[in-house]
Amino acid sequence: MIERRRALLIAAGAAWLAPWQAAQAGAQIEEPLADAVRGALAAAVADNAPPKPSFERMDDRLAYLRWLGTMSDRLKKRKSEALTRIEFLEALWYESKRAGLEPALVLGLVQVESAFRKYAISKAGARGYMQVMPFWTRLIGDGDVSRLFHMQTNLRFGCMILRHYLDVEKGDLFLALGRYNGSRGRPEYPNGVLGARQAWLLPAGLPA
To answer: For domain 2-200, which architecture applies?
Structure first.
């Protein structure tokens, strides 16, 4: 019964979210961070190295290349320039995996938050692909808000913030997504992201 209800909610989210609808950005709420948490998050976002995935097994590399090609085809409507599209997907995959997140989930979140617009700004002031609130640059960054329009920086902040919220909510994705959007406890946003996620899953049998 619970699984059926969850499936219906996800389906409702998919119906609510048109394939490329305008951004539905919210706003993370500034909360006190323990020193250890602040330090860990600051260290996680400080490394500016470009995303260069390495693979010990050829099968893993081939799976990654299949993912890259499939997602690039699906993203053409929103990013027509091939190099820009590939660079975005490379960075998103890298930052998702680095934060222990599923790339399809992060793609769904970006779709809902910014509709894949690099320079999107919400009414609350959240910025970039993952609609990161400026206060995060003060809490765990160097204070330069303009850097949230840098592709990899924005994706890194967004992924680490979602990872932080998942840890806070003890792995409850529904509540973590609500916290990310500043709408914790309400179903519209989590269901929208989960619905959007479906479009970014690989065909059955191909690893994410």
So the answer is: Orthogonal Bundle (1.10)
Task: Count Cβ neighbours within 10 Å for each residue of 46-83 and write b for 16 or more, e otherwise.
Answer: eeeeebeeeeeeeeeeebbeebbebbeeebeeebeeee
Half-sphere exposure of 156 (CA within 13 A, CB side): 22
Q: For the whole model, what pTM was predicted? A: 0.84
Contacts of 171-177 spanning 24+ positions with Cβ under 8 A:
173/105, 177/109
pLDDT digits (tens, 9 = 90+) for 39-77: 988 988 887 777 788 899 999 999 999 999 999 999 999
In angstroms, rounded to a whole number, what is the distance separating the alpha carbons of residues 86 and 68? 7
Burial environment of residue 110 by CB neighbours within 10 A (0 to 12, 13 to 18, 19 or more): buried
Of residues 143, 115, 142, 140, the one with CA closest to residue 129: 115
pLDDT per position as a tens digit, 137-186: 999 999 999 999 999 999 999 999 999 999 999 999 999 999 999 989 89
Provide the β-strand partners of residue 127: 121, 132
